[in-house]
Amino acid sequence: MKKIIYVLSFVITIISCKEEAPKDYILLSGTISDAPSKKFKLSHQDARGRYTVETAEDGSFICDTIFSGTGTYRFSGKGMNRINIYLTNGGEYTLTANGKDMRKTSVLTGPDSNATKYLLTTNIRRDSLRGDYKSYSLLNESDFSAKALMIKENLLKYLDSFPDLPKDFAQFERQELINYYLLSIIKYQSTHGHFIEQPYFRVSPDFFKPIEGLDYVNEEAYKHRGYYKDLVEQYFELKARQLADKDGLDEYLVKLKVFGDIPNEHIKNDLLSSSAKYDIAYTDNIDTYYKTFIAVSTSEKNNKVFTEKYKILKTLSKGQPSPVFTDYINNAGSTSSLSDFRGKYVYIDVWATWCGPCLGQVPFLEKVEKKYHDKNIEFISISIDTQDKREAWSKMITDKELGGVQLLVDKDWSSDFITAYKINSIPRFILLDPNGDIVSWNAPWPSKSELITLFDELQI
């Protein structure tokens, strides 16, 4: 009997001394109170995996067996500001927050929690240093450069003030702050031009000196997302814009050629695909654009998808019957259909109350409307605002004294007229002839002199 007890004790001792296998998953639980949604999305920054988190009536949740590994995760819910949290493989975490303000109320406990404390507070600190975005963007070149540099230096010191951050995390976030600074320098030209209502505003040549010398073809950093991906895209777009300005070329075709010269295949094809998805709707020559894309793209998958889109868009070429809309709500209190305007040229502005570039075109559109108010042309503005924003849409029309025929689509982006014209970015301007046929499915913007030239050619 003693031998049996001895053997059992020996076995138990061996088992208890055996080293546990490291966990290859993460455990996350917690409570989100006062949340407008019961469903949340948790996604790894590197797109390794996405998870759905559902809360109980009391706001509690358990999201176990997260297998995407160590890294920064985005936690987001409908109608709430999203947060970033840092999770370590094998760690067990508890997240508590108030859904009315996730950024200011979130608390995460668990391994390396200082990383999350940094993520939750750095953007708040940045916004405080920057101040109102419009006022920041309206600064002159020298003042903007100085303030952008001050923000970067302050945030780098703030990052260094957090003790015991994981080494890889700290290195990545340090580079993120530098990339954010460079990104703000690149974007200043377009944002400043937007707020001063000068779409063709250009900075002095020396302004862009800080962005030179960086490696813009680092595939690993590009796939890691963050600000580097945006920085790369904005950098090559800027180079294309500068080349188009210099030679007076179609900026969308130039962009394809600049992207096509990028030596890294992954970055090149990713930028070509993402830009062509929208730019084909704005180029002046769809056939040349398609041929140029196929000539520089080396992705068979992208080429196949783009070819199908090109074939569909060809049905919207000059002289083809226009897709129609029927019984769209107008701000006069009734409804309007495209057939109501047969016999006149129709210039259509597709916009939304939340679209900054759309609102930037309003002053130019008003001037064109006044110039042609007694001519054989009707100006129609079609908003893709959702139906629940109808009151805000109507109020903006009244407050800004918007002219022309003001219409609201029935199903925002999914409305038949919008999908028929393959509109996936705004503003978009369309010109139809008195028979309802397409003159241009991508007409010149009101801010461009080409619009008046086109009207003159048509003898409107």
What's the alpha carbon Rg, rounded to whole Å?
28 Å
Sheet having the most strands:
7 strands, mixed
Please list the strands of the largest sheet in the order they lie side by side. Answer: 10-9-13-12-11-14-15
| Average pLDDT for all residues | 90
Output the structural class. alpha+beta
Q: Report the uncertain regions.
A: 1-19
Detailed description of the structure:
The chain is α+β, with helices and mostly antiparallel strands and about 450 residues long. The chain has three domains: about 25-110, Immunoglobulin-like, CATH 2.60.40; about 135-315, no CATH class; about 330-455, 3-Layer(aba) Sandwich (Glutaredoxin). It has helices at about 1-15, 100-105, 115-130, 135, 140-160, 165-195, 220-225, 225-245, 250-260, 265-280, 285-295, 300-315, 355-370, 390-400, 415-420, 450-455; strands at about 25-35, 40-45, 50-55, 60-65, 70-75, 85, 90-100, 105-110, 330, 335, 345-350, 375-385, 405-410, 430, 440. A seven-stranded mixed beta sheet has the order 10-9-13-12-11-14-15, covered by helices on one side. Strands 4-1-7-8 form a four-stranded mixed beta sheet. It has a four-stranded antiparallel beta sheet with strand order 3-2-5-6. Helix 14 links the parallel strand 12 (about 375-385) and strand 13. Helix 5 packs antiparallel against helix 6, helix 6 (about 165-195) packs parallel to helix 8 (about 225-245) and helix 11 (about 285-295) runs antiparallel to helix 12. The termini are far apart. Mean pLDDT is about 90; it is low at about 1-20.
